[in-house]
Structures are given as structure tokens and as C-alpha cells.
Queue: 3 jobs
Job 1
Amino acid sequence: MLPVQVEGEWAKRPAYVLVETGHKEERDGKSVPAWKGLQIVPPTEKDLAIWFAKKAGKGLAVVTGAVSSLIILDFDGPDGEKLRQQLGLPVHVRTGSGGSHVYFEHPGWPVATLNSKAKHELGQRWTGLDIRGDGGYAIIPPSVNPSGPYTWESAPGDVLPLSRLPDDLRAFLGLLEPPKRPEPRPAATVTSYQGSRQDGQGRPPGELLVGRALDRVNSGEGRNNAGMWLATQLRDNGYSRGEAQAVMRDYAAQVPVQDAHGRHDPYSESEAAATLASAYSRPSREPWEDRRTLSTSTPAANRGDVRDVTLPDTFDVAGPVPVEPIGETGTGPVILTGDNAFQQVAAALQVRNVDGVVARRALSAEEVQRLVADRRALFVLNPSGAQERAFDAAGVEWYPLQDLQIRQNPETLNQALTEAMTTAWEASLQGSVPFLERDLLALADARLNRGGHTYPTGLAAFDEAIGGGFYDGLHVLGGVTGGGKTALALAVAQFNAQAGRPVLYVTYEQSRYELWGRVISSNTGVPLRQLRTGGTADRPVSGQLRTNERYQELTRSVAPHFTVIEGDGFEGGAWGTDRIAAQVRRMKAAYGAAPLVILDYLQRMPSGSDKEKRHQIDEVVMGLQVRLGRELNTPVLLISSVGRGKYGELVTAPLEERLGVFKESGGVEYTAYTASLLYPLGSTHIQALGLEDPPATGSSRAALKGLWKYLVLDLAKNREGEAPRQWVVRWYPATGKFELIQSIDPEQLNDLPPSSGRRSR
């Protein structure tokens, strides 16, 4: 048995309580849970007593393999359920997400744990199937995770014989017969590469890279790992996808047909293609060249903190270059290189350095201030956004050195550095010329083609007013608690996810279960109160959802593009701007477009500051605009609570007064590109606009047409379009549906006599 987490991003992972019984490992100076020992020896009664002294917050898993004499087939999703039925297998455990686990006896020899997403052929031939064998585990009842409870559908202890599986599946999973004794694995068919070390474009030739990858295989590294290394080198050295595919095919043709254990398992071209696709979905890194290690006999005491380094063969350097300190009276420029490029830049500066340029790996705050005092220029290799902000704040004269090819011989690099520094300095004298000649045109093309970076709300007139939908940058929607702002945000999220556009929803108030419950209820008709309680013993919600076609459609069409994260820090730390930015990068790599980020709501977001709350909010807002909106080109819809007021009269209030309700939100209304409000439309104004009265709760009309409320969607600020604009919106709370009824002419409402409810001034 194994205790597991049940909530947050670490759900289903081994629980931290394992550390208390010595099942741990050290990682980055911290003790983290480790369960490898439990794959061999089952836990003791004392272990179990400690793990489950407190039942809350933990789930239970069974360790599969020889230690438990179990293997478990995991059928997930509609495809998995269809496959299980085709195989005629019963269900032993129904998972929280509606999948099924089927228990089989262990054959007595090692059985691999396989995931269909990682094992490409398994996913193709038996879609929706994973196997938990040796080195695996599976959640068991009565565990509950964010997807729902795990339940027994067969008597605990029932196990099927392997003969219930067809021979082709048993053979693929290694369950048909014991593996033969491994034969020595033949070496990869590779000969020493004798050709040029650079092709016509200055890149390492594909043959050289394939040879180095095969060297890794022959030294004992797995074929998949070596293939991933090769794919990343092709990416980093500027190979196109078409060129890289040809090189990967050469690699697949030369690697052994046996795996690391000597079993016959050819490395297919499809696996090579999948590896290549994974590598090219990530941003490029610094290119690789064949290297040799240079050592030195220089005593450590004379070398400062510089260690032996690895440099390209093209470098003619006798040993590591010592770090030059920032002198008290120095006058030359400083190049900030980081760790990776320091030795190359320092070696290049030794060739010729008439300006007294100094290379530095890093700079302390005191050294930056020394540069300011001495009016020395700073040049930074590929500065990050954080560095840019820090140097700007420090007041240092600094210039970026972008896209500088470091892997050159010292003489060539010296010339390249001189030209790059001159170009960077001259660029500061050109005003907006480079922006108009290059950057603005590129941005215009990017906006023309950004497609997935514009996220409509589904309310056509509102979308038209803001330019087609929420675009890169910060947008704010304000309203009071219970006023419909979260419901509208969920409707926008679902509308975009349904269309295949990625959405990241970070909730700081409600749980993921609660938010998904609202979406599920509005789509399936299962009352939200039942979802909150789980239903009844006679009619559990989980059973209703498993057979609900709309729920299955929601799972297939919306869920893959709609990520909900609980941002309150209950599990794994609070979700501030940094963590959200990291998640956005992951989603951009996966979907090829920045997601729409919805944050619900602003006042609960962590700031990491001990300043007054209003100033904390200002820092969060500016961080979101800069880090997400500008640096990652991400649309952000920020939900904000606002000050309570006479909302029935707000529709006719001056614009300054309407924007003033954001007083609890720092300066968000000034920073955001669009600022919208959602508030009730008063009964007097409903009559003045000639609208049908909304049905009363419990009336026959409500039962027939559904209960709705009238709201005002007030676009109070629109940096790139017309504002203010106001519309009447009909909101159906039970279904989460919003309908834009008509625009509002405030002058028409201002003409009402004072006795009709118009506010006097």
C-alpha cells in the first residue's frame, strides 16, 4: 500500500507523509517522498499506522508488480471504455474520472509499466489502455481525487487470469511467456566520422550529430534518450523540420533493434518522428559543437573561483581565463555574459582590447552601482525581462547584445563583439527608426495572423467593440459577489475551449470541483446542489454523469483545452505571477498559442510583498501586464471585486463614477486595456427600455422559460476602440447562459423624470 495526495497539482503523487517513515530522498537540499523501496518490500504495520494516523487529505494506492502479485490494466476515456467492452472484461474499480481498472494475476516475471502516451505503438493499437506492472501503482477505493471517488464494482480480492486477454495483447505487454535470457546487445553500426565539422551553413553536419548520438547508445544510454539528444541538437543548430526528419530517419536505421535489456524491440521511424516533434515544440537553446575538455595545472589559489571548463576545439586557449574584477576607477565597458558564454567572451577579449572591456559572469548590486557612479556602459548578452527591469531601475547605462553567435574562434568573436557593441550603441541614437522599419511591421503581421491570441466572449456586439475579442494584454471585469462575473468568465472560458482555443483559469476563491461543477450543471442539467453533495446513495452523481452524453461531450470537446488550477496555495505553494507565467510557457509549447488566462479574483492573488494591500495589488497588476501581456503575448482577463453602490442607478452615472467602483483594485482601471463592469439593471430602467419583466422565482413563467436576470455589461474603458458602451444582458443563472439583448442609450434613461428613479444631481 502507498499513501497518495488527493488534491491540487500533486494529486495522485506519493504523499509527503512517506518522509516520516524514512521513505525519502534528498533533492535540492530538501527531503522529498520516495517510494522505490515499496516496489520491493511491502510496508510494515508501523508504516501504515504513521501514514494513516490522520485520514484526511490522503488517498490510497496499491503498488503493482511482484510485490503485490498484481498487474492492473487501466482503461481511460471513451476509447478505453470501448476497448474494455470489446475485450469482454469486467470492471474491478471505477476511477474518479469514469475510467476503469481491471485486476490480473502477476505472471511471475518482470512486467513493464507502460503508458499509451509514452509508448507510441501501445496508444495506436490499443487506444486508451495503460498497464501498471512492476514499478507502478494504482489508486484504489475509498480514495477521492478532484475528478471524483474511486469505487469497487467487483469484490476486493477478485483477480483475473491472464488467459482472459488475447494473445496479441499479452505478447505486446510481455505477458505471454517469460522473456528469454538477454543476449549481449550489439553495438550501433557507426564508423568514425571523418568529414568536415561544419556544413555549408556553419552547422555541425547531420552525420556528425548522428555519430555522436550512436556513441551515446554504445556507451549504455537508452536509444530514446540519445534520440532526444539528437533531436534537440538539430533544433538548436537551426535545422528545419524537413532536414531534421531526414537525419532522424538515418539515426533510426542505425540504432540496434534490441533495447537496453537485449530484447527485440526495433526503434521505429514513428518513434523518431514523435521525439522530433517533442523537441521542436520547445524553444531553441545555445547550439552544440564537438568539444574537448581543457584542464590546467594553475594552482586553485591563483585562479580565483574559476574551474576547469569545456571549450570547442576551434578555441586556441591555454587555460581558463581569470575573472577581472570591477575596478574602483575603471573606465571601460562591461559585458555581462552569464555562466555559459563567459570563457569564450573573455578569451576573445584577450586577442585585442583597446577599450578596456571587461567580461563578467554576474554582477552584484554594489558592482552595478559602481558602474553607475563611474558612468561605465554595460552590455548584456540576451538579457531576460527581469534583468532589463533591474538595470532600468538601477539607472545603469546598458545595451542588449541579442543573437550573438558565441561559438566562434577568438579572433572572429572579437570582431563580432566589437560590431555588436557598436550596433547596440548606435541603435540608441536612431529613435524610433528601427521600430518603424522592422518591429512595427512584424507586429502588424503578427496581429494579422495571431488568430488563437484573440479570444471572443460570444457576445457579438461586445466582441466587435473591443476588436474581435480579448487580445494580448490585461483586461478587467468588475462586479460584486454573486453578481454574475464568475459565471460570465466561465461562459467565456467554455466558449473558447469549445472552439479549441486554450484557456487557463486560476481560481483563488472556489475549488476546481466547484467551478467545474457549475460548468457541468449548466451543460448536463444535473443540479449544482447535487454536485456539491455527490447526490444520494440511491442516485449518486458519479453514476448520472457516466451515462450522460453531454458530460461525455464536455469531457471530449472542452476539457482538453480548459485547464483549471486552484491558486490559493493549499497544495504546492501559491500561484503568483511567476508560476502563472511558467504555466503559460508550457501551454504555449503544447498548443502553439498563448492561452487566455482568467484570474478569479484579483484581491486574493498572492503578491509576495508585505506592503499595504492597495500597493500589493498595484504590483500584481503591473506584473501581469508586463510578464504575461507584453513578454508572453498573453490575453489576461482579470476578475475583480468592486465597491458596492447603488447599482440600479449606476447605468446613468458619469464615467468617472463608474470607473471609481474599482477603488478596491488599486490602479487596475488605468493599467488594463479594457475595463468592464457587470451590474444589475434596475426595475425602473427595465420599464424605460421596454423590456419584458424577468420572471419571479417559483412562478409558472420561471418554470416554463427559466429564471433570468437583467444585467448591464458596461465597457467603461477601451484603449483601442470606442468607449464607453453599455448593453443589456440576460443571464440565466441555472444554465450559465448570457444573451446580449440590446445596447443602451444613456441619454434615453437620463430623460426619465426624477420620480421615475433617476438620480438627482
Job 2
Amino acid sequence: MSSPAPGNASSVAKLPSGSPLPIRNLALLGPAAAGKTSLAEALLQAGGMIGAAGSIEHGSTVSDFDPIERRMQHSLSTSVLHLEHRQVRIHLLDTPGSPDFLGHSLPALEAVETAAIVINAPTGLEPMAVRMMEQAARRRLDRLIVVNHIDAPGVDLAALLAGIQEVFGRECLPLNLPANGGREVVDCWFAPEAEPGHEADFSSVAAAHRALVEQVVEIDADLVERYLNDGDVQADELHAPLEQAMREGHLIPVVFVSARTGAGVAALLDVITRLLPDPGEGNPPDFLRGEGEAARLMHAAVDPAAHVLAHVFKVVIDPYVGRLGVFRVHQGTVTRDSLLHVGDGRKPFKVGHLFRLQGKDVVEIAQAGPGDIAAVAKIDDIHHDAVLHDAAEDDPIHLQPLQFPMPVHGLALRPRRHGDDQRLTEVLARLGAEDPCLRIEQVPDTHETVVYGLGELHLRVMLERLRETYRVEVDTAPPRIAYRETVTGTAQAQYRHKKQTGGAGQFGEVHLQVDPLPRGAGFEFVDVVKGGAIPGQYMPAVEKGVRLAMAQGVISGHPVVDVRVTVLDGKHHSVDSKEIAFITAARKAFIAAVREARPVVLEPIAEVEITAAGPGIGDITGDLASRRGEVRGTDQGVIRALVPLSELTGYQIRLHALTRGHGSYRLALSHYDAVPATVQAEMVKRWDGHPED
């Protein structure tokens, strides 16, 4: 998402102030190609915000305005939209559907009361729909299932509804049903009987209405008794019980639409305004006051007169306009000229301009109250997940954090133009500020800048943004594995460095011993020289020479670790001895000793936790074995294993194939262990060795 270009006055409109409208907040979630962006266009058109719905193919939608999005014809970040219907303001969040962009779609759950899971009728239930339904349930959001493309030829909507109920539960009940071959929908909540000529394509309006009423009255014993005695309860009397049933997950409504033809779109708007919760009716988000174990749970008061409490769920850093913080107001009222604190910062910032977003365009507004989604620009301290407030409390307040997937797909970057190193670092920091699932790491062991993302597409889009938006060209490579070397035995060696150049010469001789230390112990340097064989002023040079050799490696070019070096003896010359001579002698003596001390190459071993389901578990464990992995256990679809990090390059693609997109994994460094002898031999053969002095 980008802010309006500088000087583009037509993109900023003035909204007249007045009494605030009731609010509904809705996030469109689900797999790619489910039609979320097309549905958003249809809703904007039906709400009178645009004259005609834009086209993804033509790059004319309000949501997908980024040039890369238009070219790829997929949403890559969450767009914030708004419209009005029946004197209700509706905030729509159109989220990306690829799992690679969960860093953009998951934060939308923090800004809404209702998660609308959009399902593509021809393809049915997909992993991303299941994943987002689980995430919405974890955040205790009301959930709505929207079945899109109901007019697609050959689609079996009755079977799809049965599949939805099998996966998500019998509480998934239709509020309307498709009719006339998916060219329209008929209401099942407010109208208990279908009008003649508008019968449902499957089931019946009466049966669907009866199932809905029976599901809703179950939460109230008095209503159950009335229903059993009277045979029905009017839908208007069930508004509060319906809200309670949705809050508790006892009812997950299902609606049918075709974003392409508009069938069911007006009905969906009515569902949003008449049945979905307003900010005071949904489950309140969990805020925590304080830090660590002392943190106390608190909930915002949906009160425009209270202290301001708002949460930043999206940050955009435009190369021309600067940082834009998009936030949801949970409590109080933000106005122009408000003084707000960012988190526990003691210095407030002044709200100079307050915006409501419509894709790339912004509407300047006078105030934003509870439930509103708004934005402020050019506030450098604002960051993702920040809490904005107008009272400098002693205890910091933050929202219960989301559980983001761990980015494990790495790519090493090197600027193509000389002198662009600092520029690359700055740009990567901006991209990381926008995306919680983009991790940038400066690896001192390999001297690389490595970016970790959720997949190949995630990193490919990042590279395109570097090139197109920020004009930074980079070369890429897989991250180098941080191998190590160590010794498994004890050995001694000595080296005399003697150099005569006509004037003052160089002389130094070092006798030393290397011993192995326990894994992770590091390095010990011990001086047991007696009688001044090596004068004390030269011992730092001896240690420096050893450390230089350790950093460069001895057999494969990787740093040496977990060794003790004991300096046993040596010789010096009263005239020719210099620091450089003892540095060289110590370095060469150390190399010779290590080569005789049964050296081994160590590789990082990752602790991997793979989440999968069904028959694919056997395939996964077999694949891990082929990667020199050691399976430690499987429990309820979770596989835990130890695998060499070098064997996990490109593993996400392999896991995706083994699980048909249902698998995910996390990893963490466990320990270092020796590589197999055949691998070590190949590494030793490939290394160029030490350059001659």
C-alpha cells in the first residue's frame, strides 16, 4: 500500500463533521483466488462508493493499487476500505490470500469484530481458509463464511455446505441460499418461507430458517421453552441471542454471493449492517497492562469520552510521503491536534492530520471514535503493534500478541552497486517495519545480510520492491551455512619465523599445544612459558596469531572453536624479535598442531517442528531420514526432529508438495555436531587453503 503521491490533492477529500455513524468492522480472509478483492469491489459499488466495480485483470480495483499487485493480479498487503449502508459505516479490510503474506493478513484480525472467511465455490475448502478460521477463533472473533462464485458452472453448493459443516462444525448454518441457478439468493433468517418462484436451489428456506432459530435459542433456556411451546420465535426478537451465539462461536453464519454478477451482494450488506456486531457487541480484544508475569488483563471501554486507546495494526513507509500508521480506535476519541503517546514513550506527538483510507487514497477526517479505523502520517516513532494513548501511564499497555509463523526461507543479499551497503540496510529496515514476517539479520560469522521470509514468493516480492520502489539492485544467493572446525585430539607443534631483509630482521619461535574443549566452551589461551623464552610483551602477539588462524580456519575455511591453546616454549632475539614475527610463528604453529589433532568440521543441527495431518506424516518422516534427520517423536500431527541445517535448504517447497499445502514448520538452532566423513572430505577438497605469506 502506498500513500498519495506528493501534491496529488485530488486523493485527499474533506469529510463533513457530524454525529458519528454506527460502525461495523469486517476483514475479508481466505485463500488466494477466492475473490476477496472482487467482492470488496462489489460491496463498494453496492454502497455507492464507486460507480463501477474495477477489474483485477485490468488492474483497476481500489484494493490492488500497487504496481506489483496489479502485475501479479494478487493482493500482497491488506487494503483498508470503507463504505456506508443503511446509515452504518462499514470498514472493510481486504487481505492477501497467499500464506507467504500472513504478516499482512493476520494483523487484520486485530482491527475487526468479524472475520469473513471467503471460500471459492469451484475449488472448495482450501488450507488457507481453514488456517484463517482457526486464527479468528483464537482471537474470539465473530466468524462469517462467504461462499463466492456461486454461479460457476458445475459447482455443487449443497456438497460444499456439507463439507464446510464437516470441517468447521454443524454450527455453520446458511443465512441465505442460492436460487435460480446461483443468479440470486433468498433470505432464510427474516423470511421463514420462500416467495413463489424464488425457491432455493437446494434444501429449503423453511428448513434453513428452522435450523437457524433452533441453533440460536439453544443459548437461552427461556427461549427454548417458548420455541417448543409456540413453534417459532420472530427473528427480530432474536437479535441479542444471535449476537451472543456468534460471539460464543455457537453460530457461524454462511452466506452465498457472486462478486462477478452481484448476486447476494446487497443481501451481504444487509447481513453486515443488521446482524454483525458493532464495536460494543463483539468480544473485546485482550489488552495487557504491565510487563511479564506482572501483566494484568484489561479491556477497552467503548466510550468516546474515555482516555484514548488505539492499536496500530499496519505500517506503510512510502518513499515520498514517509511513515503512515494505520490504527483501530478501541476507546476514546482521536481528533486533529490530539496529543498521543506511542507505547511507553513519554514524549507525545501531535496529530496534525487524521485520515480515513480508501485503498491508496485518503479522506481527511476531524475525529475517530471507538471502532473507527484511521491513520496518521509522518510519525517516525509509530511501529506495528504499537498502542497509542493520551495518558502517560506508569504501566505500559499492549495488545495480546499474535502468533506469527516463523520466517525460515532465507536469502543472502549483496548490493550490486559499490557503496549501496548503507542504502540496502536502510531500505530493508523499512520493509521489515511494514511486514512482521520479514526478518533481516546481519550474520557476523558469514559477513552476510540475510533476509528471511515465509516463502519464495514472499522474498521475490521483496526483491521487486527493492528494485522498483527503492531502486536498489542486489545479487542473491542461498545463505551460507555457519560451519565450524574443532579438534578431537591433542597435538603439539612449533614454528620458527625468521626473515632477513638486509637491515633489521624478523625472528620469533613458538611451541604450542592444542587440546579439545567441551562443545560450546569457546577458546582458552594458556601461557606456561618459563625463563623468559618469549618475553611478556610478545605474548599478546602470540595470542593474536592464534586467533587469526582460528578465524580463518585450518582445514575447510571455517572458524575454529572449542580449543585450548597452551604456549609451552619459544625463542626470541634481542634485536630481530618483533610482534609481527610472533604473530606469524603462532599462526603457523597453531595450523600445524590442529592438522595433527584429528580436526573435524562441525555443522549446525536444527530442531525442527513440523505440523501436518493425515497420511502425509509417513512421507515426511521418510523424507527427513533421507536428509540425515533424526525423528524424535510424533504427536497429534506434530513431528519433532533434529536435522542438519544444510539439508533444509528449500524444504518449504518439499513440505508443501508432501502435504498438498497443509504443512508448516518451525526451526531453531539445537547444537553443533560433526559432519559425516565423506562430507568433510569434500569440504576440505573444495577449500583453497591458506594463502602463502
Job 3
Amino acid sequence: MTEGWRFGPVTEADFEPLLVLRTEVMREHLERVGRYTPERSRQMFRMHFDEPGTRLILLDGVRVGCVGFRRHEHEIRIDSFYLERRLHGSGLGTTILKAMLTEADATGLPVRLEVLTGSKADRLYLRHGFVKLREDDIEGFYERPAAGPSIPALLPRGPGHQFVFYGDACSGVPGALHEGTFAGINAAVRRLAPSPEFILFLGDEIAGYTADADTLRRQWRHWLDHEMAWLDRHTTPMWHTTSNHATYDVMSEQVFREVHAHLPRNGPPGQEGLSYWVRRGDLLLVFVHTLWTGLGGEGHVETEWLRAVLQQHADARHKIVAGHHPVHPVNGFSGPYQRDVGPEHANVFWDVLAENGVLAYLCGHILAFDVQVHRGVLQICTAGAGTAHRMPEGIEYLHAVQAALDDGGLRYQVFDADGQVHEKLSWPLAVPPVEQWRALDEAGIGKDRLAAFRFTGHTAPAPTGAAQTLLAAFEPNVRAPLWIGLSGPSQRLMVILEPEPGRSPHYWLGPPIAADAPFDIQLLVHPGMGPGGLLYRLAADAPWTSLSAASAWGAERLQWPGRWSVGHGQGGSDDRAFRGRDLAISATTFAMSSD
């Protein structure tokens, strides 16, 4: 039925037959909203019929309807889209709409239209990327944002998986602020080519936080049936984590189960449909409930079930765990239970991940993008897929993450509502073996390269609280933009970045280094990882761990110096001098990505 159609020009001879067709298919709906009289119907159709852009719809050469496709300077408007009633449900309307949207995409303009309130056409437009901007008793007003060029998706290098994960829309309320911002991110996700195999949503889909179950259900239904109507969830499955906006008490947990009845019920007792796991070939996805009411609420997570699931699926080549709350603080927004998982759970939780070969823990909650590494396990925080706030403002941005997983590991790209890619990572890193590292002045440290330093020697015999320099940038007449050393009574590894003269420095802290003992410290500087991009390990075969920080930025602001001070600060041999012996430094650089 959808073949053999085309557009044709309208003539005055088409007016009366098309008016009859319009009246037949629209009269019932117009009467429902109190807007039908024969005179008004003729007047309104006459106005649209005479406007440039009216097209005849022909099927096998026979007139079966019409549509208005009006190009203006800043928009395209669609109106007067009528088909003979016998063709409703045939798929022809969808085919014609897709053709018009393809034509509109080539112009780079948004498409706008109105639909009578309560019309079944609402679902058609929502499925094709339109967003309901507002609605009154008569009409709903819809917009499809201008389509940009496709966003090339990262693909597996051989057998693997490619998917999208994002979170924190806090939407579900028609016409509210977050609905529009979330629509922008969804429009960017739809531009991925090819489309993702599956989607993970890391919580806070809806505004929630209501005591009324029916209100909560309405928010979920609006989010699923309107805001996410573009997604064919049979072709592209979507899995969810619980979250503080959506599952904050017993009632909301039950609503979550009802709304997401398709989610597996293989979680621990009492958490069926809240915690669960999914196996896709060699990939295991485990979703944990980080605020179960039966365990204490926000910031609490059950770990024994997680351990058992990971051990049950020890054969899975790739293991990813997803939850809402971070385990390690993000951007300095720290606070057990409310900001991150509570301390009685956090260490055990991470032990389970590290000991069972988990590649990454995906989370949200803090309205930022952040990646850290702890004992070789990534913590990737992605929140702000629609929530129009930032943590902090001015640095973070609306975004989603697309990832590819294969035998070489995980690669991701973080893109905003305009489709611009901000950050990338390939993990694990292909760090050259230490035998290939060179002397500091021969390593070629500079922009657009990852740098790693190796510090060996013997610490001072007596503990001291004074700072001791391992390596510092040498910048005459300004404070050193980079300082690496030991500091405080426990002589913790410390990195200080001071890229903006006259502004407060930011600090990164690592482990304490034992007194009167040999040491072998490797420090990796990854400008593409934000604040988590300063990593250390204390042996060549040890996993990498990010230093702790309260910063929202990292080495991306660092301008590498041309000169170095070794074993003391740039103020001379007495400036925070290293008090041990046999200090030696080597370094290496390598490409940002393994692609």
C-alpha cells in the first residue's frame, strides 16, 4: 500500500474534493474540541490550500489526500495532512511523513506543527522525533529540532557490542523545563550511525518525589510514551537503574516495578525488579539498587548478591555493573549516602568489582560527566541528559555517552546536544613497558600526548611533615603550574596543578609512601580523563588508580613546561627538597587513543 505514491501539484479543481475528504476525516475531532462548522471548515481549508507548499498526494496516480509542507526562513511547518480514511493504518502516512522529514533534514531547519488535543496522530509525531512544546484545550504544539549531520558511532573492532548510556533527565512533566533539554539529547542520540544495540538509562528519568502514586505513574507514562516514543524498545532494548527521584520509598519502588514489568526479576529477595542482571553473549550487565528501603534507603547497596552473580557468570568476558549513586566522589560533590554510597558499603562494593574482573561501574546522580579508575576498575558518571542544571555550572554540559566493547577493551565518546564530541577514552591504556621509558629530557613530553613518569629511590629515614619535591615545572616569575611530590606527616603522594596564575591551586592526593624504604612510583597524566586523569600505581604490573581530588577539571588545562626542577622546587635546592636518596626519574609518552 505504501508503494506507488508521489506528490503532485494542486489545482483549483482539487479544492472541493479535498474539502470533502478533510471534512470526512476531521469533523468528529473538530466537533470534540468545539471547532467545527461548515463555514469555518471551508474558510480554514481555503486559507491553507492557497498557501504556497500545498501538495497533492497521489497513489497509483489517483488523488488520495494532501499535505502542506511550508518552508519559511527559520522553520518548516507541516499542516493539512489528510488521507482518505481507508488508508489510515496502512503505513502510507508514516511513509509520507518520513519522506518530508528527510527533505526537511536537508535544509537544517526545525519542523513545527499543531495537532488537535487527544488526536491519535500525537503518537505518530512523537515516534519521529517531535517534542510537544505545550498543549491547551484545543491543540498541542510540536517541534522536531533541526537535524544535524550523523554522529559516527564507535564500533567494535571485531566481535563485540556498541551501546549508549545516559541518565538524569528529571522529566516526565509535560511542558516543564527539563522536557526540552532532554529532547535535545535524545535528538543527538538519534543521530548516531549506526544506532546503538541497546541503551542503559542510569536513573532519574522523571522528576518524581511525590507522595501520590498516580502522579508518579503519569510521569512515567509521559516519559515512556511521549518523550521516549521515538525509541523502538523491541529493536533497541533499554534497561534502567533505580534512583533517588524515582525509587525513594516503598510506594515508588512498587510503581517502578509496575512500569518496568519487562525488567528481569532475578534480584535478591525483596529487590526483584529493582536489582537484576542481563546476559548478552559474552557480556554481563548487572544493575544494583543503591537505595533499597529494606536496607536503609539512599546510599545503601547489597553486595553479597552482586558477588554471587559475578561469580556465577565468571565466564563472561565483559562485566559491567550499573547503579545510580557513585562510589567515589565526583567533582568534589561528596557526602556519604546522599551524594555517594555509604562507607560501610563502598569499600566492600569496590572489592567485589575489582576481585571479579569488572571492567566498569556506570553511575549518575552527580550532574556531570566524570571518569575515574580505582584498582583498575573504571567509575564512569554520566548525569545531565536533560536536567538543566550542572555540578558545577560553567564546566559540565548536557551529554550522553556512546561506547564500543570488544576484545581490546572499552572505548567511549561523550557528545552534547549539538553532537559535538567532548571527551574520549580507550581502556585499558597501552602504556609502553618501563624498559622502553627514557630520561626526562628525551621523552618528548608535550601537548596531545599522554605522559607517564616513573620515580624510584629511597625515602628519608625519619618521617617529616614538610613537602618533598620529586618533580616540578620550572616557570620563571610565576608559581610552578605542576608539582609532584610527597606531603604531610604520612608523606602522601601529591600532585598540585596551578594552570592559572593568581588562582588557587588544585590538589590530587595518593597513598602514603613508607619512610626509610625503597619506592617505585608510576604517575600517569591523561588530559582526556578530566579530574580522574591523574593516576598512579606502585608496581609495574599493578592496576591504575586515580588520585583523589575535589576538582572539576584535570590536566586538560595544563601547559607542559619546557624546563623541569628535579628533587626540589623551582625556587632552588632548598625549595621543598627531596630528603631521601637515589632519586631517579624516567618518562614516556604515547597516543591518546589506541584506535
